[in-house]
UniProtKB/TrEMBL annotation:
SMART domains: HATPase_c. Keywords: Cell membrane, Kinase, Membrane, Transferase, Transmembrane, Transmembrane helix, Two-component regulatory system. Residues 137-341 form the Histidine kinase domain. InterPro entries: HATPase_C_sf (IPR036890), HATPase_dom (IPR003594), His_kinase_dom (IPR005467), Sensor_HK_TwoCompSys (IPR050482), Sig_transdc_His_kin_sub3_dim/P (IPR011712). This is Histidine kinase domain-containing protein. Pfam families: HATPase_c (PF02518), HisKA_3 (PF07730). The keyword Lipoprotein does not apply.
């Protein structure tokens, strides 16, 4: 639930409708005034319908059921005042409303559980993918070079020659130095120190600089003028999510896009915080679709495993992640986070 006027109006109208319904029941029990009970019940039904339109699907169903209950109370008072039994037939309408509300509520709960399962699966896939990547890095780099160190030293020890021992020690020192550098890179990728100590912008600056030095492409970070004033609104956990989204987009650009230039942008205004990653690579092929404008064939790319993890992180930030790509013209990843939005807790 975000902080929009519609979201704020929902609980207020819901409370007003429930209060009117409670007051109608109280008057019915204590004072037996059918006319006032009917008026209050009808008023509660109208307010609850408005509240249902302003709420989520699950609450909408229960509010519709409360509206049906209010209508049943109103019809019963109408029957009492007119002493006309035929009006009892009107109770069929609110009963049908309650039945429909119950069905809608059950469907909404099922959809919410299904969505939660899909998100949990995407998160699990992303974590498993990360574990495989770390295992591959440790096996192909660290383990292999440690084995090489063992072979070099064992061979020199068997020969027993001082010159061979000196050469072996020099080779071993070189291999160990390489591994210290590699392990430092791995540790920074797992949890960048700059993110904890300096914040998001310096951490992304480090990411861009390291990417440029390692892969030989032009990587640049641009920070908007308002970022220094508004960027601190992101909690450390939210900054970590944003960093991982940018890191995944940068890794995709390096590994798959064959890009020569990469631009990361941080910006914010009074309404939202925006993060964007653009590259000038080959872009991604997309499924044929009916374009809105044939002169501009840009389209939203279907999600893969990495993109699913990025969207999951964007969801936890209550944000909206879009990925656009045009073959031959690069890829654009954009994250929009409404300001003052309540972050979603991570499901366990």
């Amino acid at each position: 639930m975000n902080g929009s006027p519609r979201a704020k109006a929902g609980p207020i109208t819901e409370a007003a409708g429930a209060a009117l319904l409670v007051l109608a029941f109280a008057i019915e029990v204590l004072q037996q005034q059918p006319r006032w009970v009917m008026r209050l019940s009808l008023g509660a039904a109208v307010v609850l319908i408005i509240a249902a339109a302003l709420n989520t699907a699950v609450r909408r169903a229960w509010l519709a059921a409360l509206c049906g209950l209010a209508l049943i109370l109103a019809v019963s008072q109408l029957v009492r005042m007119t002493k006309e039994p035929l009006f009892n037939g009107l109770n069929i309408v609110p009963l049908l409303l309650i039945g429909c509300a119950a069905m809608l509520g059950r469907g909404a709960v099922a959809r919410r559980r299904s969505l939660a399962r899909e998100r949990a699966q995407a998160r699990s896939d992303g974590e498993e993918r990360e574990r495989r990547r770390w295992a591959r890095e440790l096996h192909d780099e660290t383990l292999q070079e440690l084995v090489a160190v063992q072979i070099v030293l064992s061979t020199a020890a068997v020969s027993g020659e001082p010159a061979a021992m000196k050469d072996a020690i020099d080779q071993a020192r070189g291999l160990i130095t390489n591994q210290i550098t590699s392990l430092r890179h791995l540790i920074v990728e797992m949890r960048p120190f700059a993110l904890d100590q300096l914040g998001l912008a310096p951490a992304l600056e480090t990411l861009c600089r390291r990417t440029g030095e390692t892969f030989g492409l032009e990587a640049e970070l641009r920070v908007g003028a308002e970022w220094s004033r508004l960027g601190d609104e992101l909690s450390p956990e939210a900054q970590a999510h944003v960093y991982r989204i940018v890191q995944e987009a940068v890794n995709n650009a390096v590994k798959h896009a064959e890009a020569s230039r990469l631009l990361v942008q941080l910006d914010s205004d009074d309404h939202a915080i925006t993060v964007a990653v653009r590259d000038n690579g080959r872009g991604m092929a997309h499924r044929p679709s009916t374009p809105v404008n044939r002169s501009a064939p840009r389209t939203v790319v279907s999600t893969g495993t990495g993109l699913s993890a990025m969207r999951e992180r964007g969801h936890l930030l209550n944000g909206h992640l879009t990925v656009g790509s045009t073959p031959g013209e690069g890829t654009h990843v954009s994250l929009l986070i409404p300001r003052h939005a309540k972050r979603r807790p991570r499901a366990t």
